[in-house]
Amino acid sequence: MHFLMHQVRIHKFLEKTEKHKAEKDRKMEDGEHATLEQKKLHKKVTSLMKKQKLRAVNQIVRSQDDSKPWGQDAKAKVGSRLIEFLLQTAYIQSPADQLAVDPPDIRPAFIHSTRTVAKETKSASRRYGVIQCDELVFKGLERTARHMVIPYMPMLVPPVKWTGYDKGGHLYLPSYVMRTHGARQQREAVKRASRNQLRPVFEALDTLGSTKWRINKRVLSVVDRIWAGGGRLADLVDRDDAPLPEEPDTEDEVVCTKWRWKLKSVKKENRERHSQRCDIELKLAVAHRMKDEEGFFYPHNVDFRGRAYPMHPHLNHLGSDICRGVLEFAAGRPLGESGLRWLKIHLANLFAGGVDKLSLDGRIAFTESHLDDIFDSADKPLEGRRWWLNAEDPFQCLAVCINLSEAVRSSSPETVISHIPVHQDGSCNGLQHYAALGRDKLGAAAVNLVTGEKPADVYSGIAARVLDIMNRDAQRDPAEFPDAVRARVLVNQVDRKLVKQTVMTSVYGVTYIGARDQIKRRLKERGAIADGSELFGAASYAAKVTLTALGEMFEAARSIMTWLGECAKIIASENEPVRWTTPLGLPVVQPYRKIGRHFIKTSLQILTLQRETEKVMVKRQRTAFPPNFIHSLDGSHMMMTAVACRRAGLNFAGVHDSYWTHACDVDKLNRILREKFVELYETPILEKVSISIIGEVEYIILSISVFLIT
Question: What is the CATH number of the domain that holds 412?
Fold first, then answer.
């Protein structure tokens, strides 16, 4: 739609500036002068378009264009009309082997129809339009995915430096410093902010965009071979559909019902496989287009919380293992002694399976004990023992196996060039930020904010506390304490996996019901409790105990979460969104408003468009504020680290709470990221937030005072 609107704007401009025959009769001097100027502009734009100097064309057209932007209604009507043209003109061609005497097998490629679905209450129903594609088209999508025109490709030159809301990033494509997704107040807040206020954010995004990448051709070759062989290895999806179950030759209703459920399940799986196959094809398409380039760049922008993302959506370092496996730094650096050590640690971290929880020396020992497997993986990735496939991140593991094999076999390992990005990840990063905000020593120790012989595992720590509580409860009299029976059943089920999801989502304000459902799913997977009602009761008890353990270990975090939530509730109850400014100066406005429905009649059907109303969603504003606030802090920390690394001469890439650099520079990165974390929390962050909130709603002073006193 952006492209279409842009073409319309240029066409209107050319029409406007073209000299019409009727203008020859004009005699007034001013009129002649205006016409001459328009003629010059028309000639200049036409010449620039022939030379494909689109950026210059854009600048001229924007400066002269006085037309209003298309509204939501106009876009919907134009889009519907374009779809209608597609339906009327797209047909499936006759097969090549069809006999001339047969009637041509020509049918529409796409069909528009309406469907009716009953709502849960079954007293009402909902109709909606669908576009169905012919089976041949559907199958062809996978084959043609890699030949599609992909917008916002990685750039072959460094991105344009950011200087404003819509100034920076790509050379010609529309680029915006923030992904606002139609949130008007957020967009206006960023536009109002001065360039000086946003300078730290712009500098950080420019730094992230200046990192040069290239394709690891050896890993890409292995991916291609697996994909050509049907997938199914290294977490690649199966290229074939699952076979549909045969319809039973019986009228037994029980058997037929089971078959229908099985059929529905397999069809759903095949739809998911199709989606995953298209995704892989797009990733491979980008990889193959870029594989012979010396290097390329990813322009970055931020979401409304201030977290940075590459603007290219398919093959980037925020993606899955296959993306990270085929991407590497374009610039290589000698490993050095520390780099060789960190490359070994990195391989153990990628292998995971508990190995990543060992001490650093333990991880090095693991890698050195598997050198024969590493050599075999590098030399014969598919013909050999395939040890690398046992890793949690197999393609990244393979990339390290190749680089490490070259180094270890060299007479001078320290001089071997490495392009591998080595990761330094946060330990339950949200809780790290809460521990720092609350100056919480106990919580800090649990999430590795203080030094230790080996990394602390917060999930194991919570599991140990849960087990301790359950062991005590199991000793109690069931007549007085009914949960004693559940405690006795669960003591053999408690481990880090049982509580991990609840601990991870605690920073997002997970509720008791959410925790109960998470633990129930884990218990159901294990088949530990067969009876449905007993399973529900056990999960309810386990959730209560887990949240208690979390509250004990992270008391400061729970207090801060509660305080932030209460502040948001008071603000939202006045029909105001929660606002704050990140430590780097980015204004944030939570976008959660009630959605109104608007009906519009198009040439295709009646459409229901969603529009934000002026009414904020009080509950969503309250529950979303704590996690969004923490995300704005981790985004600020990553950006501060990125800029400091560039100034120190390091290559840097970031994935939220995971920081990447060359193996030889990991020690420097570790020092810098810790210095920036301390620098971030030397500022009175919560005090600044409270002042900001007080500015929004003055009478919140009383609420904050009462909370702080209690």
Answer: 1.10.287.280
